[in-house]
């Protein structure tokens, strides 16, 4: 992972990746997420999918009010990417959550893990089909956006999605 990308994320820039399915993924640091969402004209628009990407599993406790014990095992032993919907949430900055369902994923390896780990903070991942992202033209013109090819960073675009209740009850969505 190039050091310039980490610097760009720290300075408030957005990484844009065109996925194999034609959708667009936007990645930005949690610290500047609200400003990025506002400057890209996305406030009030609901993306197809939104998640918080973490490099360390322990970071989850900052955002999950009632963290079920089974979550540790599920995330640690999952071999495939697993994004989990938790309730209730806490410490999510205003203006960051665009969807009612905000997922969390512990990224364990690869370039994406290295990027998040080196950044030292969670990364917000928003995914939308091109025709649903009205801000696409603004994105093309913005100097805050850095284009990456799908082969430059692996997002594991189709994670397993599950809902995990505080009492340990769960439901898979796909």
Automatic annotation (TrEMBL):
Keyword entries, A-Z: Nucleotidyltransferase, Transferase
The organism of origin for this protein: Aureibacter tunicatorum
Enzyme class: transferase
Organism lineage string: Bacteria, Pseudomonadati, Bacteroidota, Cytophagia, Cytophagales
Protein name: L-threonylcarbamoyladenylate synthase
Entry superkingdom: Bacteria
EC number(s) per entry: 2.7.7.87
Molecular function (Gene Ontology), one example: L-threonylcarbamoyladenylate synthase
